[in-house]
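Cross-check.
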Amino acid sequence: MNLTINLSEQDAAALEARARAAHMPAKDYLSTIVARVLERQRTQNAENLSQHLDKMAGQILPDTTSAEMEAAFAEALAQVRPTRTWQS
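Predicted model, tokenized:
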């Protein structure tokens, strides 16, 4: 994937300095940062889902129907899905 990021001169200089300190080209350094952030988000989302499902499971009565459980699951997914803002 190719991406153009507009940074201020100060931010671009800081990024390049950090990349040099890591002995990496700025492009590779930035790619590594983005990949780590995305992995952390996936991990946090999975943890959030697990916690929410545990909380909801503790609130479910023994006579709960399958349809009610499916609705609860859909609600849990809605709670942990990231909000997306599309800009063009």
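The two ends are 17 Å apart (CA to CA). The mean pLDDT is 88. Passed to J.P. for a second look.
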